[in-house]
Amino acid sequence: MLGLSYLTLALALATSSINASPVEPKTICKCLPGQSCFPSPSSIAAFESTLSKPLIHPRPMGSVCFPNDPTFNALECDAVKAKWHNGAFRTSVPEAAQFINWETMINSTSVDQCDPFGDVNAPGNTCFQGRVPWGVVNVTSIADIQKTVKFAAQHNLKLIVKNTGHENLGRSFGQQSIMLWTHNMQEIKFSNSFVPKGAPTVTIEPGVQWGTLYKAVADRGQLVVGGIGAGGSVGAGGGWPMGGGHSVLSPFYGLGVDNIVEETVVLPNGEHVTANLYTNPDLFWALRGGGGPSFGILTSVTYRTHPAPPVTAAFLVANTSTEEGRLELFKEWVKIHPDIVDAGWAGFWPYSGTQFFLTLMAMGNPPSNPKATSTLQSFYDKIATIPGVSIDLEVTKPYTGFQQWYDDNFIHSQNGIGFNYTVGDFSGVPAAVSSVLIPRTSFETSTDDLAVALAELTDARPFLVGGGVVSKVDPDAMAVNPAFRSMLSDITIALSWNVTSATPQEVHAVEQTVTDWANGIRDVTKSPGAYVNEAEILIPNFQEAYWGNHYPRLRAFKQSIDPNDLLIVRQGVNSEGWDDEIMCKTL
Which GO terms of the molecular function aspect are on file (predicted)? Predict the structure, then answer.
């Protein structure tokens, strides 16, 4: 009888479950302009009075070109058009992103943008605000950040952070948001014996850019591991270190996060704290690769600096006239890739159409690794014999140090050799991007398959930034993607579209193509590893791709310090449930 009672109870429970009404999902949303919850004009004015600078209420860059816009100014329009593709200029104003699709609202039915090159005189043609924020705090002090964080938390506002806007997923922009613009925090301080590590260091505020920092460090006879971008406009104190930070110098000195000694941040509760190995070590772990600004808004970062030896650079331009020759070139490159890394080379190997380029660097002049020259020469000799392959340029050049190499090839490109990186880096266009971290094992055991996958891409920008010191750091020492410790090269893919005429469906097709191409590489590597700073719009399983087995720890820590989801970004830690615009979350 007892068994029958249990059975009867089980059936009753099952029946009641079937007949019960489904639980409706709960939705919570940010408070937006125009809603009753939004702070009143007097509240905003009171907040503004506490800041060091007045609030900025920007319109999109192109608004001055629209005759029906209050900001219309024909002379200003000409100036804006002249600077539209100037990446350095775009970093210097709060209303501009490097890739303009992140200033634009794209949904299933429309592309709401502010394109000054379209027919601005057409009836009804409007400059849409898009994803340009309604308000900008021009940060000049830590107090500005703290006050803004508390104001945004109090009113449940959508808060974003921008230092330069070099962002591939639009996380430094956001529809109807309030922006912390840290670009004007520019202090640089040196120490010969920084506590707690006792090492030579440089401490910077979040607005400092790599071009400026490289020169300041070089003037002291040192170098610092940092990002590479034409014009030097990538930020040194924002998303780059918080996402991990790979560099042409990484194989010699480690990733950016491997060189961070200390960071200071404003937490989601408004508290300003220091994080290092001894103070707030869990926060320090998360900040080094967990993605920005998920765990706090960076107010300073302290990097270890290193002596600056002379370097040797190698440049190659190879041209292929047949598909067979192009594939054989890739097979030889994949085959020798691990040897190139072990021989002490790092750098870039972009390719486009029929051309294949190398821009490589080795420490020392001549290279300190005795195998450097012979290993690279063996690759040159091999591809020179491939039918359909011609070597158009092969140059080895000594430089006094990293700084001279960087200046010649990324700042003053008229002095550069081979691939023109100033032309290759583009701004003021829409773009969809992806990255795949290719592990050493793929180069060693899947040579032909990897070569085929690479050759199927008509255009790519791979970075040889792994191996060496990068591979010797404990994968769990910090939050950065553990896939970095076993990779040799990071391949990036980027596609654009016609901003004036593209429909939402055409934009989505480009985004899908980028993911399809990246999947072709991932199918070979069997590794989902990707670089969070080269985020992919349609990436499968971003949690595993960007952080691997570190994600559960990151998410638990994120939930503990940001229980109200103030600092949430697309594809960021604990962003599950939020829509792509971080407007509403479904629980």
Answer: FAD binding; oxidoreductase activity
